[in-house]
Amino acid sequence: KKNINKFNASFDSLPQLSKSINIQIYDGIIIDLGFSTNQIKNPQLGFSFKKSNFLDMRFNESQKIRVIDWINNANSFEMADVFSFFGDKNFAYDLTASILKFRQTKIIKTSNDITKILNKTQHNSSSQNKLFNLIRIFINNEMLHLKILINNIIYTLKKNAIIILISFNSLEDKISKNYLTNNNNINFCYKIKPLSTEINNNINAKSAIMRIFKKI
């Protein structure tokens, strides 16, 4: 336990944290993009679409902008730009139009409101999970923090160091994989998915994807 240091900080603060504990180089790094079950179950955070939760979705409560603030004030161009991360421009414009129409008569306050809006777009139910993940990733600026972390670890990892990255949805997996594989100093080794026995013991592991990389 004496060799464990705990910090409540974002991914992009690795250089400052390393300096504070006088560590300049690492043998490896594990990047876990998941969040806790307690956060999912907390109705005040709004991470789950399965219940009518308040639309917050911030990991850091000191951050000023919540989902409820953004989705009720963003203009059509801002929203379409965020939603187009799906790669489906028609979906982005359709969803944006539905949000603007909903806002004319009611404030969007809960995850149930988002579900109602999505249902009016005539897109399939699988879009629901992707949409909530996308909004959460955007509101917390997660991909920027991750990109900065990946750029930083190139200089803080030893040669042949191992990078283990665990993601829990296809959007995070795709973006983080591209960040790493596009770097000439990183080699992709292999991908691991949970076995059925692990999923039976922990249903939350069902969507997990572990990718192993190596610094060269």
Mean pLDDT: 86
CATH superfamily of the largest domain: Putative methyltransferase TM0872, insert domain
Strand content: 5-15%
What order do the strands of the largest sheet run in, or round the barrel if closed?
1-2-4-3
* CATH top level label of the largest domain: Mainly Alpha
The helix content is: 40-55%
Please describe what this structure looks like:
The structure is a single chain. This protein has helices spanning 14-20, 37-41, 67-71, 76-83, 89-103, 111-119, 126-139, 142-156, 170-181, 196-201; strands at 26-32, 157-167, 186-192, 209-215. 44% of the residues lie in helices and 15% in strands. The protein folds into 2 domains: 11-32 and 142-215, Rossmann fold (3-Layer(aba) Sandwich); 38-139, Orthogonal Bundle (DNA polymerase, domain 1), CATH 1.10.150.170.
Note the topology.
Layout: H1 14-20, E1 26-32, H2 37-41, H3 67-71, H4 76-83, H5 89-103, H6 111-119, H7 126-139, H8 142-156, E2 157-167, H9 170-181, E3 186-192, H10 196-201, E4 209-215
Parallel strand pairs: 1-2
Antiparallel strand pairs: 2-4, 3-4
Helix pairs in contact: 4-5, 8-9
Task: Compose a concise summary of this entry.
This protein has 10 helices and 4 strands; from the N terminus they run H-E-H-H-H-H-H-H-H-E-H-E-H-E.
